[in-house]
Amino acid sequence: MRRDYFTVDIQASATDNDDPTIAIVYDGPTGELRERLTKVDGGTLDGEDIDVTFRRQPESDGVLSLTNRLTGEYVFEATAPTADIDALVSTADAQEDPQFTVRLTDGEGESRTYELRTLLVYDHDGSLLRGQSLIPGGVEL
Would you say which domain of life the source belongs to (predicted)? Predict the structure, then answer.
């Protein structure tokens, strides 16, 4: 799927009721996205099945990726501002229970929400930036 099918809006500030959020709107062919969000058994991928990563680029934007944790396949990639990802990680990490939300809305207005605790940030060469990532305690990479 093309990156320009996705619009990413990051709300880094947390409120009493809401975690920091990555809101993603997809306006491409709906069937293609639904297919990528479907498990082998026909169910829909949930938060335990999704990994979120961000790859910095030399310019001010980077690449936000959602992957299927079980298969390693990309669900999609989208362009996102590096400063907004940094703010989201910082805000989530400062919480008592660090987490963030990914809300994905397709072209037909159907939304899926994923509550996540891990966001791995890589530099443009592919090296993990541990200090700039959101990694739960006790997780070894």
Answer: Archaea
Kindly state whether residue 140 falls inside one of the protein's structural domains: no
Per-residue pLDDT tens for 8-56? Answer: 999 998 666 688 999 999 999 888 898 999 888 888 999 999 999 999 9
Retrieve residue 60's tokens. 């001010």
Report if residue 104 sits inside a domain.
Answer: yes
Cα 8 to Cα 81: distance, rounded to the nearest angstrom: 9
b/e burial code for range 12-39 (CB count within 10 A of at least 16 → b): bebeeeebbbbbbbbeeeeeebeebbee
By residue range, what is the domain housing residue 81?
3-126
Quote the DSSP letter at residue 15.
-
Q: Is residue 35 part of a domain?
A: yes
3-state DSSP: the chain helix, strand, coil percent, rounded to 5?
A: 20, 40, 40
